[in-house]
Design brief:
By secondary structure, the chain is mainly α. It is built from 13 helices and no strands.
Length: 273
């Protein structure tokens, strides 16, 4: 009789623990979705219904708010990457007092809360007509995410062997060409991490948009969501329906990009050396 390999035995305790943790973490999401199916106040409908979604699409500007949020979030993600990639490469590869001072500066800036910059930025943006503007909000989102994005890119560049760059230099590539064709090409997980971080930072923001946006046509989804709240009572069905719509883009982003988070190709690049 062949003995059972103890390493292949299922760890039921760990499985049960993970199921409990997953249930606790997912229960708020399930509650939001269930409440979005609850009939609106003053209606005779009994049981789950999709009338809340029909209502917010027909009677509110949720599609405009959705497009505004997607626009500023994508701009923040792309612009943060454009700045953070070369800056992170310098932090990873260069050494010297100037680089260390720059690294310390962005660390100090990141340690300050955003509320410290709100009033000075509002005064400055009011003078250049960037208040109540999605462009002005996007600029702030890029500025608030760049420091962490630089650190994230620098940390990932540290994991890429320098031998790859040296081999490219021997073949006649310039520093810029090596950075674009060798380093960035092997940094897809780091690039996606930076873009997702910047996207979520802008997507979930409430404070900056609340201060700088005034017109309904400029609202992002978090600000548009507050228009459902009334002074005396709140119809939670449309609120939760809007919350479900707000959750969909991040879920779709993670579901689509999850398979690209792999670093196996970097280690294989030096095979045979």
């Amino acid at each position: 009789m062949t003995p059972t390999n103890p390493k292949k035995r299922p760890d039921w305790a760990r499985t049960i623990l993970l199921l409990i943790i997953s249930t606790v973490l997912l229960s708020p999401l399930c509650a939001v979705f269930w409440l979005s199916l609850r009939p609106r106040l003053g209606t005779d409908i009994a049981g789950p219904t999709f009338t809340n979604f029909v209502y917010i699409f027909r009677n509110t500007e949720v599609l405009l708010w959705l497009s505004n949020s997607l626009g500023v979030s994508l701009i923040a993600a792309v612009c943060s990457l454009i700045v953070a990639a070369p800056a992170g490469y310098v932090l990873s590869r260069a050494r010297g007092r100037a680089v260390n001072a720059f690294s310390l500066t962005i660390f100090a800036v990141q340690s300050l809360p955003v509320i410290v910059f709100i009033i000075p930025l509002f005064v400055m943006f009011a003078q250049v007509s960037l208040v109540d503007s999605l462009a002005g909000v996007a600029i702030i989102y890029v500025a608030t995410s760049i420091s962490v994005a630089c650190w994230m890119m620098a940390a990932y560049f540290d994991s890429i062997p320098k031998d790859l760059e040296e081999a490219a230099w021997i073949d006649g590539c310039s520093v810029f060409t090596t950075f674009v064709r060798i380093v960035l090409r092997n940094s897809l997980p780091g690039i996606l991490s930076v873009m997702i971080f910047s996207f979520l930072l802008a997507w979930n923001d409430y404070l900056i948009a609340l201060v700088f946006l005034r017109s309904d046509s400029q609202f992002t989804l978090p600000i548009g969501l507050q228009t459902f709240f009334q002074q005396n009572q709140t119809d939670w069905g449309p609120v939760m329906a809007c919350a479900v719509i707000m959750m969909l883009p991040p879920i779709l982003v993670f579901a689509t990009l999850n398979r690209f988070f792999s670093v196996g190709g970097v280690g294989g690049s030096l095979a045979g050396r």
